[in-house]
């Protein structure tokens, strides 16, 4: 019988990573079991990416990975329409990212381009800011509409920063980044990322940094050109009204819906209207998730649970106040 699933964290060493995954989220990436990393840029919390498939950490299914579970439980795990659309591929990837330094300026291809070039899904994503150092910023899109030639000239002359839209960021902010939007996460930000299952990134500029061998990371200038949305958009930050003891929609797109749940009282949360799994990401406080009499999961900030599609309701019991991101694949 399926129940709310938690997974072993996958730690990723990154040139720009820091210590917040450990100091703020309480995940010890220095332990031998985690690979004994000196720092950590990302954790992958729910992943079906080949070579990085999440493994169940608790309950009767502990030790089984997400691919095995989809193969065994199919629509009971992911939902009928999700299984019909994606088969044995899990369609979403959830990460936490600690930017101790600026990430590279980058862009991700859309589904069509990713399919043609990489036989992969594209990458539309969203960010929820968990913590921000004073003055921390990020980039989403351009500060004006630019032509392809103007963009290439800015890359060549190292003036790309002049045409980027820079946004201040604070805890609770949401940024939606459709495939094709140039972006980077700025130094001093800790965030949750929900995205399509894809690991394709075109790196445009990496601030001339070098690794421990003195090597610069590869750039993908030519590949990026055809992937970029060169248009200016009126708003880049996603506005939503955070309301106590309510579920508030933050992002709705063809690939995922994300709602923000901010509660300080127990609530019976119903999923019977959905034909999809649900991922609950704790981004503030703590919560106990009860599913019938079969299983109980406790989450604190920086932890996630996957609610199988066959589980039609859960009881959420906050530890004081809690904030969750609730993500699922929308119906057709």
From TrEMBL:
<keyword id="KW-0479">Metal-binding</keyword>
<keyword id="KW-0862">Zinc</keyword>
<keyword id="KW-0413">Isomerase</keyword>
<feature type="binding site">
    <location>
        <position position="108"/>
    </location>
    <ligand>
        <name>Zn(2+)</name>
    </ligand>
</feature>
<feature type="domain" description="Phosphomannose isomerase type I catalytic">
    <location>
        <begin position="8"/>
        <end position="119"/>
    </location>
</feature>
<dbReference type="InterPro" id="IPR051804">
    <property type="entry name" value="Carb_Metab_Reg_Kinase/Isom"/>
</dbReference>
<dbReference type="InterPro" id="IPR014710">
    <property type="entry name" value="RmlC-like_jellyroll"/>
</dbReference>
<feature type="active site">
    <location>
        <position position="203"/>
    </location>
</feature>
<dbReference type="Pfam" id="PF20511">
    <property type="entry name" value="PMI_typeI_cat"/>
</dbReference>
<dbReference type="InterPro" id="IPR046457">
    <property type="entry name" value="PMI_typeI_cat"/>
</dbReference>
<dbReference type="GO" id="GO:0005975">
    <property type="term" value="P:carbohydrate metabolic process"/>
</dbReference>
<feature type="binding site">
    <location>
        <position position="183"/>
    </location>
    <ligand>
        <name>Zn(2+)</name>
    </ligand>
</feature>
<dbReference type="InterPro" id="IPR011051">
    <property type="entry name" value="RmlC_Cupin_sf"/>
</dbReference>
<protein>
    <submittedName>
        <fullName>Mannose-6-phosphate isomerase</fullName>
    </submittedName>
</protein>
<feature type="binding site">
    <location>
        <position position="125"/>
    </location>
    <ligand>
        <name>Zn(2+)</name>
    </ligand>
</feature>
<dbReference type="InterPro" id="IPR014628">
    <property type="entry name" value="Man6P_isomerase_Firm_short"/>
</dbReference>
<dbReference type="GO" id="GO:0008270">
    <property type="term" value="F:zinc ion binding"/>
</dbReference>
<dbReference type="GO" id="GO:0004476">
    <property type="term" value="F:mannose-6-phosphate isomerase activity"/>
</dbReference>
């Amino acid at each position: 019988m399926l129940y709310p699933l938690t997974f072993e964290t996958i730690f990723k060493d990154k040139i720009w990573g820091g210590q917040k995954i450990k100091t703020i989220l309480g995940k010890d990436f220095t332990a031998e079991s985690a690979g004994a990393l000196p720092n950590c840029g990302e954790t992958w919390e729910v992943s079906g990416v080949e070579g990085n498939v999440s493994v169940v950490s608790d309950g009767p299914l502990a030790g089984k990975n997400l691919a095995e579970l989809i193969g065994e439980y199919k629509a009971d795990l992911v939902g009928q329409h999700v299984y019909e659309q994606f088969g044995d591929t899990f369609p979403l990837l959830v990460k936490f990212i600690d930017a101790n330094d600026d990430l590279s300026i980058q862009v991700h291809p859309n589904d069509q381009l990713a399919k043609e070039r990489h036989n992969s899904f594209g990458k539309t994503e969203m960010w929820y800011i968990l913590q921000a150092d004073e003055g921390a910023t990020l980039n989403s899109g351009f500060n004006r509409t630019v032509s392809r030639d103007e963009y290439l000239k800015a890359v060549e002359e190292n003036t790309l920063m002049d045409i980027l839209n820079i946004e201040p960021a604070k805890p609770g902010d949401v940024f939606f980044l459709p495939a094709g939007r140039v972006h980077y996460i700025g130094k001093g930000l800790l965030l949750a990322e929900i995205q399509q299952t894809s690991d394709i990134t075109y790196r445009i500029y990496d601030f001339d940094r070098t690794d421990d061998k003195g090597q610069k990371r590869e750039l993908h200038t030519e590949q990026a050109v055809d992937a970029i949305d060169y248009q200016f958009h009126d708003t880049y930050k996603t506005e939503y009204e955070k309301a106590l003891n309510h579920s508030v929609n933050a992002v709705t797109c063809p690939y995922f819906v994300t709602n923000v749940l901010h509660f300080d009282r127990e609530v019976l949360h119903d999923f019977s209207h959905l034909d999809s799994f649900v991922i609950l990401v704790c981004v503030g406080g703590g919560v106990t998730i009860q599913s019938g009499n079969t299983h109980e999961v406790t989450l604190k900030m920086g932890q996630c649970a996957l609610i199988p599609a066959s589980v039609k309701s859960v009881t959420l019991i906050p530890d004081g106040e809690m904030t969750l991101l609730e993500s699922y694949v929308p119906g057709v």
